[in-house]
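Why should sequence recovery work at all? Because a backbone constrains its sequence more than one might expect. Tight turns favour small or flexible residues, buried strands favour hydrophobic ones, and helices have their own preferences. The token representation captures these environments compactly. In the example below, the structure is given first.
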């Protein structure tokens, strides 16, 4: 994993990793520590970490087809109580509208689409661009001590 690079924006970090789930976990750990340090509520930290895991695994497994020579580009920033992350893979992309609804009766036994559903549930915004190989997610979270 390349060391994080401050890109000049407030609390912004850019990281490039090979298509390796272990490398992705290191980024998840870094982000979790960052959120805990800014006193994000533990439920929000859990949700962000879960959405991040799903997005990174999708980039590695589906986007880059587990090809370690392909990279995953991650850029994240924290401004106040807003966390934003952009994840880009080197795959061909996809159309999120073509992914079956995992809650439809005919898909309940199928694993596809659950990760996208979790990402949408736990994050404030989830958007895809560049033919589906870039996902931008953001979360406005409460800080410990704030009422929900």
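From this structural description, the recovered sequence reads:
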């Amino acid at each position: 994993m390349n060391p994080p690079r401050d890109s000049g924006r407030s609390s912004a970090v850019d990281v490039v990793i090979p298509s390796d789930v272990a490398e992705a976990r290191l980024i998840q750990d870094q982000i979790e520590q960052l959120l805990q340090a800014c006193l994000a509520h533990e439920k929000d930290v859990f949700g962000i970490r879960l959405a991040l895991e799903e997005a990174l695994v999708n980039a590695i497994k589906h986007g880059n087809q587990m090809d370690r020579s392909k990279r995953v580009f991650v850029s994240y920033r924290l401004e106040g109580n807003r966390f934003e992350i952009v994840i880009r893979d080197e795959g061909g992309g996809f159309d999120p509208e073509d992914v079956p609804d995992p809650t439809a009766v005919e898909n309940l036994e199928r694993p596809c689409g659950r990760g996208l559903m979790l990402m949408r549930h736990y994050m404030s915004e989830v958007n895809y661009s560049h033919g589906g190989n870039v996902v931008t997610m953001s979360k406005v979270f409460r800080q410990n001590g704030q009422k929900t």
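A few observations help interpret the result. The chain has a mean pLDDT of 88.
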